[in-house]
Amino acid sequence: MGKHIAFIGAGAVGGYGGGHLARVGYDVVLIDPWPEHIEAIRKNGLELSGVTDAEHCIVHPPTLHLTEMHAMAKQKPIDIAFVSVKSYDTEWATMFIKPYLAEGGYVVSLQNCINEERIAGIVGWGRTVGMIAAKIGVDLYEPGRIRRTVPMGGAHHTVFRVGEVHGRITGRVTELVDMVGHIDSVKPTTNLWGERWSKLCVNGMRNGVSAATGLTGNDGDRNDAIRRFAIKLGGEAVRVGQALGYDLEPIGPLDPERLARASENDREALAEIEAVLIAGSNSGARSDLQRPSMGQDMLKGRRTEIDYINGFIVAQGKTVGVAAPTHAKLTEIVKRVERGALPPSPQNLMT
Q1: pLDDT (tens digit, 9 = 90+) per residue, 245-267?
Q2: Where do the domains of the chain lie, and which CATH numbers do they carry?
Q3: 3 state SS of 123
Q4: Cβ of 185: how many Cβ atoms within 10 Å?
Q5: What is the rounded CA–CA span in Å between residue 206 and residue 200?
Q6: Nearest to 87 by CA among 117, 115, 123
Q7: Helix count (H) and strand count (E) of the chain?
Q8: What are the tens digits of pLDDT across the range 35-92?
Q9: Which residues does residue 58 pair with via DSSP β-bridges, in sequence order?
């Protein structure tokens, strides 16, 4: 545990991951731009909770506000830097940590979207690793307090997937798997890009929908019109990913090809996919409090990642001649809600 580890972005995912690594003894520093959050951690510790009492803990990792980054010059160089900020903040966050990396140090993208190329443009492909967090469901609901709203993955679902951009299993992938295993279930992957696109499909079905409608994940799946809109989103994203040449992994519990066919009005596939989504919304697998991250951002008045999720799918589709009109529609609606031109409402996706 001698590696010096930094989390640039100590919000929901970064704070949860960094906090739990600190809990088990790793040398972690949390870096974040929100002053109240940093001050709350310094004063009271970082409080982490979940769906069971056993998940509750308070940890006291070292913290830095962005304005204090000069202090890094007096610390050990960073061996592993987790970038866990919103996608639109990727470049500056990577630039901020680059001068403090150790000679063999590297950067891990622990983010919603596909940002490895942005990171590599600053530190190089050889210092860039990808990590996907799937179905983790965490919320920074007030300064210094992060709660998980879905159960631990355990043997039922692999939460974290770690991979190199070239697909080989390296020593640092193994190192990260051993490390992150203290947080939840994890596996190495030789298919980082397929994993990334599959997670993008999930986010494309859920995040913007929550932002546009104001609904939680479960409430969206229980609404017939919203659920079918999400299926359209999922199927379009699958077809774009296939055209790009990615070997897609399951889209959460959904088979990619069956999801695509459901979106194309295959009645049997549609009934199958709807049954899975409805069952998931009523199974207790995620709390009724669980709100996708973009829905959380909208409630907090923050900028959304719509251009890096649904907008990105539209842009990538254009490069291979595959249209994604439902993603284009959702992107436009979310931007209107973000600007205050529309209130969040299920009606936004029913016209």
Answers
A1: 999 999 988 999 999 999 999 99
A2: 4-190 (3.40.50.720), 195-349 (1.10.1040.10)
A3: helix
A4: 17
A5: 10
A6: 115
A7: 13, 12
A8: 999 999 999 999 999 999 999 999 999 999 999 999 999 999 999 999 999 999 999 9
A9: 47
